[in-house]
Automatic annotation (TrEMBL), chains A, B:
Gene3D superfamilies in alphabetical order: 1.20.1050.10, Glutaredoxin
Metal-binding found in the keyword field: no
Organism per entry: Hoeflea phototrophica (strain DSM 17068 / NCIMB 14078 / DFL-43)
Keyword Ligase: no
Full protein name: Glutathione S-transferase
PANTHER family in alphabetical order: MALEYLACETOACETATE ISOMERASE (PTHR42673:SF4)
GO biological process assignments: glutathione metabolic process; L-phenylalanine catabolic process
Residue ranges of domain GST N-terminal in the record: 8-84
CDD domains linked: GST_C_etherase_LigE (cd03202), GST_N_etherase_LigE (cd03038)
InterPro entries per record: Glutathione-S-Trfase_C_sf (IPR036282), Glutathione_S-Trfase_N (IPR004045), GST_UstS-like_C (IPR054416), Thioredoxin-like_sf (IPR036249)
Amino acid sequence: MTITLYELAGTDLSRPFSPHCWKTAMALAHKGLDFDRKTVSVTQVPQVEGGVSKTVPVIRDGSRVVADSFLIADYLEETYPDRPSLFGGEGGQAMARFVESWSQSTLHAALNVIALQEIHDRLAPEDQAYFIPSREARLGKSFDEVAALRDAEIAGFSAKLTPLRVMLKSQPWIGGSSPLFADYIVFGALQWVRLVSTARLLEEGDAVTDWFERCLDLHGGLGRSAPAAG
Amino acid sequence: MTITLYELAGTDLSRPFSPHCWKTAMALAHKGLDFDRKTVSVTQVPQVEGGVSKTVPVIRDGSRVVADSFLIADYLEETYPDRPSLFGGEGGQAMARFVESWSQSTLHAALNVIALQEIHDRLAPEDQAYFIPSREARLGKSFDEVAALRDAEIAGFSAKLTPLRVMLKSQPWIGGSSPLFADYIVFGALQWVRLVSTARLLEEGDAVTDWFERCLDLHGGLGRSAPAAG
């Protein structure tokens, strides 16, 4: 049975951009499961599957509805244990939470500043009207204040990837010799900015760039199928 | 058979302070293995077990000699598979490398600045003579230049622990419901500064502080057995 993935998009439906939804798309592909992607706008999220969650991703798998990218990964791992593992065991499942916390508090914090205006510009007018106050409240800053920080965040972004860069000296994936959900967690963040922003954050010759390109190639080029912001 | 752990100490043998050696001490205790701790000074390291490594920890387990804290953990996991796992599976083993890279590039980078002079002051004169140029070369700065950065590094340190702090909202250990080697990796960094520095980097009421105190209690209070710098 085909799983339905509800994910966020702006006016350009070819670029669903939510980092968390990308984690789930990659997780579903990793498990080799068939899935349909249904895009919803920011203001449509509260109606998904009868209002089960304030955020996407949400999946429907037969009679089961699950929200939250990490809980979905947990669900897939438990429900489809004979398919390729997303965690490589309980230790990997636990440590993926550390990777998530790092990605969220370090990368997302910066990307929320870097891409704020560009995300806004990709939304329909009714979504923009919701997005501006909700983001200003979350960031504790006005759009103008965030814009003033953008150049410094772009300049400092590469250094935030140092832990991943150092790790890539000893193995090709966060999951070790092959990718696991922890890779998709970090991929989601960088895919998000690839799809919405013209900021160039990854430099050629950087091990992180090479890793990200390998991620884009995974699962038949699933990530690459959405075109980069031009 | 008792395993020998060679670890670093200064003039005060009750405070072996190397973060990497603490990782190994905790890993050996986690596996429930008997071990003797042999302290060596900075300048004695190249003579350990016939000069097998430029760094400690080094362990001898019967006829096997292994150096490097992560490789020792790998060795223990492989050699003693029936004892409590250090990684919780292959995924956890791989992701512990990410935790190591994060700890090294973020925490150690700061602690090398914060504790530099205090480490120096705990060494014997012949070790100090080696330590000064070797650390100045590694840090690319003189002791005076490092000293000028110390207050800012102390002030900024708590923020560097944010990924761990955020993760602790969803689980009590990096290993999940119980500690794994990844916990000992981060513990090693904070134990190092606890033993050599009077800088107070962990605040009461912080989830990271609570986690660190739990680490100090593990394995019969192994970490707490070494007195904090006063």
